[in-house]
What we know:
This protein has helices at residues 10-16, 19-30, 35-42, 46-58, 108-132, 150-171, 194-197, and strands at 5-7, 62-70, 73-80, 85-87. By secondary structure, it is α+β, with helices and mostly antiparallel strands.
Amino acid sequence: MLDVTVIEDPAAAAVSLDPIRGRLLAELAAGPASAAMLAGQVGLPRQKVNYHLKALERHGLVELAGERRKGNVTERLMRATAASYVISPLALAAVQPDPDRFRDQLSARWLLAVGARLVRDVGALITGAAKARKGLATYALDGEVRFASAGERAAFIEELTAGVAALIRKYDAPDADAGRDHRIVVAVHPTLKQTELEQPKPPEQPEQPER
């Protein structure tokens, strides 16, 4: 099982966004299970669970982990192909964000477009590397800092920009025929609080009057 995989196919993205199928993916990420086992966990009939599992399997989101005999029935044990999934902007290729459409380093929406491109590009690189059975050289740095004031934050960004620009000037070799271009993305944004990360609860359905 992969730790994370990127969904690029629009149909696979649509399948994964179904709430019931999302719940099944979460259950199968925890370990292999049969349709009968999942039916008890999610509170649905086994036939309905089977229907959803087949849709997930068609799009490569779940796979066969094994089989077991239970009485006169052979149960298929399914597992998720990844512990988590990210939907690539390629799933909405016609309207995917384009950071080159406008550039504003202080715009949160431009940062979002840059982040979307990062998901798209790295997802495509992972897919290509897996098909070629080759490794993929990447690097990421993740950290947090608390600024005492907006002025401190501005000073930090100024120094960060100057430092990265100096490294680029030092190592950039545009005339190296055997070289390969690399993209550098540096982002600074407020850290979300735990309450902001929680999924909103769906609105309660009004009770139907008894007939």
